[in-house]
Amino acid sequence: MKKIIPKASFLLLLALAANSAFATENGADSFALGAEGMMAGALPPPGLYLLNYYQNYHAGSFDQGPDSFHLDVNAFIPRLVWMTEHNYFGGQLGFYAAQPLVDLRLSINGMSDHNAAFGDLILGSMLGWHSGHHHWIGAIETVLATGKYDTPTAFQPVIANLGKNYNTIRPIIAYTYAPENGFDLSTKLSYSFNDENDDTHYKSGEYFAGDYSLGYKLNNHVKLAIEGYAFKQMTSDRVNGDDIGQKGQVLAVGPAIQYQDQNWSIEAKYLKETNVENRPEGHTGLLKFVWAF
Asked: How do the residues of the chain divide into helix, strand and coil, expressed in percent and rounded to 5?
């Protein structure tokens, strides 16, 4: 028998890890929706790289959630990438780590909370292949429940948590086609497996997520693109082992621009969400800065 969960179950909103992304338990998750865009499937040569992401996300409604809902997230996510000189199965080996710093303001039905601290730590390893104009990446990523988390209570049902309080394993593939005519077709796809939140006995469902980008190089420094992301939850959430029938989805699209020089680049984008189910609905602005040491 399906267990019915009242709207009060949505009062807890957790923040992202690599980006603001809302799905699964109480509308929150850790996949970096929209973070990647142009040349997402092309790994750089051996060396050390610093990627800095900044995101501002605002949502003023929650599909199938509370009547009055406002969420503002500002996140800064430094990501250190080390590309080695080792090759396995013909692919170049690399590692990365990301530690989000999150400022989250949440208001639901007249109740509000605000927190600013570290989110959940992300660790990953990857292999990259190149063949002419084609580039591929295969990766495995782990999101560890290291961020600040407090269990909601009857006295404090609204908590702006910065961690999810459960771990995630995520296989990832990415692809880029970049011919000499200046076009850049890129995508990054993932599938997430979540364990149970021991404090709430809530197990978030498995889900597919992906970023996409269609760009064009105007000159040696500037690229323009249409970018976005898609999210689709494939299995329902469970509470105490019972299927509660909650599945989220969203699609986002918007413009992007990138400027690159010899050892650095910066990309900016604005994405608007649509086709939302069982999640907050909003818009996001992102900046991505890459520096090669």
From this structure: 0, 60, 35
Task: Please state the rounded mean pLDDT for residues 97-125.
Answer: 95
Contact 140, 169 (CB under 8 A): yes
Cα–Cα distance measured from residue 50 to residue 230, given in angstroms and rounded to the nearest whole number: 26
- Cβ(123)–Cβ(86) below 8 Å: no
First to last CA, the chain: 57
Q: What is the pTM of this model?
A: 0.88
Distance of alpha carbon 55 from alpha carbon 197, whole angstroms:
26
**Which among 154, 171, 69, 156 has a CA at the least distance from the CA of 110?**
69
Cα–Cα dist 203/165, whole Å: 11
The one-letter code for the residue type at 256 is: A
Residue 47: partners with Cβ closer than 8 Å, 6 or more residues away = 82, 83, 292, 293
What 8-state DSSP symbol labels residue 21? B
Q: Where are the beta strands (DSSP E) in 157-248?
A: 160-161, 168-177, 183-194, 196-197, 202-203, 207-217, 222-233, 238-239, 242-243
Give the pairing of strands 168-177 and 183-194: antiparallel
User: What is the distance between the alpha carbons of residues 22 and 111, in angstroms, rounded to a whole number?
Assistant: 19
Model pLDDT for residues 84-106, shown as the tens digit of each residue? 999 999 999 999 999 999 999 99
Every domain of the chain and the residues it spans: 7-292
Q: Which of 30, 45, 203 is nearest to 123 (CA)?
A: 30
* Rounded Cα distance, 230 and 163, in Å: 22
Q: Among 60, 76, 79, 78, which Cα is nearest to 22's? A: 60
Hey, what CATH class is 7-292 in?
Answer: mainly beta
Regarding beta strands 101-108 and 91-98, do their DSSP bridges make them parallel or antiparallel, or are they unpaired? unpaired
